[in-house]
Amino acid sequence: MIKRLWQHMWAASPLPLAALIIAGGIGGVIFWGGFNTAMEVTNSLEFCTSCHEMQPVYQEYKTSVHYQNNSGVRAECPDCHVPKEWGPKIIRKIQASNELYHKFIAPSIDTPEKFEANRLRLAKHVWQTMKETDSRECRNCHSFETMKIDGQREKAQKMHPKAIKEGSTCIDCHKGIAHKLPDLSAASKQAFEMLKEQSKTVNYNSSHLTTLATASIYLNDEDSKAAGRVLPATTVEPVDSGGKRVKVKVSGWSQKGAEKIIYAMQGQRIFNTALSKTAVPLVDRGETITLESTGQEWTAVSFTGFMDKKNMISEDKALWSYAGDLYENSCSVCHNAPSPSHFMANQWIGVLKSMVRYTALSKDEQRLLQRYLQLNAQDTGGKGKH
Length: 386
Ligand code: HEC
Ligand code: HEC
Ligand code: HEC
Ligand code: HEC
Ligand code: HEC
Fold this sequence. Notes:
Elements: H1 2-9, H2 15-41, H3 45-52, H4 56-62, H5 77-81, H6 86-105, H7 112-132, H8 136-139, H9 154-166, H10 170-173, H11 185-199, E1 209-211, E2 215-217, E3 228-230, E4 235-240, E5 246-255, E6 258-265, E7 268-275, E8 284-290, E9 297-307, E10 312-313, H12 317-331, H13 345-355, H14 363-375
Antiparallel strand pairs: 1-4, 1-10, 2-3, 3-7, 4-5, 5-6, 5-9, 6-7, 8-9
Helix pairs in contact: 11-12, 12-14, 13-14
């Protein structure tokens, strides 16, 4: 019977072959339709929230402008997370098998704690994807061409023309647009804790000691009243570590008329130490130079005093690497963090002052950041880290 059918199919008559092609075609259409339906179903808010419902991403999104706004146009999860174009969409769906794996086999975000622990990793992946595609999904709805920039809010009017000129992309400046930002500082906080741990076992006889935090400097081992303050990431030279405190020498430059401050470099407002009035006469003064550019007089100085044996490290490499991370994490949320060499050392003071209000940095973190940026500025170029 089968043999006969087979023979029949391959017989001269073209009819069965045509039937086969038609049947195949219909099958294809059904498969195609089913495939597309599957694509549609898996591309809805309902589908996404069937897994992501209990997580803050959904709750936060529901309070955002993309869920409800004056124009009544809603951007749903797939609008921002799944490409519209065929090729990239299929690729995204294949990548989604990773999500299936993490849903059913190795759950990664099934409890609030696990979600929080993974949030930064996931967000970074989204940022990277959006950067690579030049924020393609955002541009399905928005474009610079159709924006009435002069009708926008002041900050947008300032930043959008800059973005067009510099070719930066939406996600460079619009992170946290639909969900709360992950805690970027958590990783750097951990790095700082490790530095503090390291400081507990530091050898106070090392050739150099670098401060982790703002610290007092005293005239004597026993004094309770400080003679000045040494700023974070300042490197001092231990002279005698035998006492309760460590006796150290802070060196640098002082400007005529501002003798209370010891700066790290001549002509640059990079603070090492601020001294009290009574300590100023005890400063050792060396050669004085007159800067050609400004006519200012700067003198090489050093001050010897006593510091508590805490919050110091002998090798500062890890501290600078921490400062670099702190900078990236704090300053690349709303725009690309400019390279430290984008500004002069003295300009960084004003720039940072206007921007720290946007961050949750502590006073000491601000001081460390300022020093990091100043020491890597256009006119210092990382030369004078010590
Ligand atoms: C079967 C459950 C499930 C469904 C349905 C689901 N997700 Fe996910 N999703 C996950 C899991 C689990 C992770 C974490 C993956 C990991 O740990 O790497 C995740 C991670 C993500 C991430 C962050 C990481 C990245 O690579 O982009 C985004 C964005 C995301 N999902 C969006 C969506 C959207 C949009 C939809 C609807 C089209 C959706 N998900 C549907 C389970 C799901
Ligand atoms: C499905 C279309 C759609 C997509 C995709 C989309 N948006 Fe929007 N976006 C809107 C609508 C609609 C509004 C609200 C307009 C209004 O205020 O009435 C909006 C508002 C905004 C606003 C103004 C926010 C505010 O506080 O007023 C910003 C910024 C923005 N979108 C950025 C983005 C970015 C970045 C992406 C990509 C990650 C994106 N949008 C993706 C439609 C979309
Ligand atoms: C260089 C940074 C930067 C880039 C890049 C950028 N934006 Fe903005 N955008 C801003 C700032 C700053 C605001 C004002 C935010 C505020 O007022 O809180 C803004 C505001 C907006 C608004 C609201 C405008 C208003 O006043 O109603 C929309 C919509 C928007 N951006 C969309 C986009 C889209 C889409 C892209 C990518 C095509 C993009 N932006 C790229 C910085 C940027
Ligand atoms: C307007 C665009 C937009 C919409 C709509 C949107 N997201 Fe996101 N989503 C983002 C961006 C941008 C990020 C990257 C992190 C950030 O900047 O907040 C992100 C990050 C995520 C992450 C990674 C974890 C995290 O918190 O960063 C998940 C998971 C996620 N989205 C799921 C969803 C789900 C589920 C929906 C719908 C309920 C949704 N998103 C709707 C833009 C969007
Ligand atoms: C919460 C968002 C946000 C954070 C975080 C942020 N900035 Fe900004 N930044 C802006 C906005 C908005 C502007 C433009 C308007 C203005 O000057 O306020 C801007 C402008 C700037 C400019 C000037 C750009 C120019 O050429 O005119 C610099 C430089 C800058 N930021 C550096 C930083 C540094 C450094 C940090 C970290 C300490 C930082 N920003 C953190 C939002 C932010």
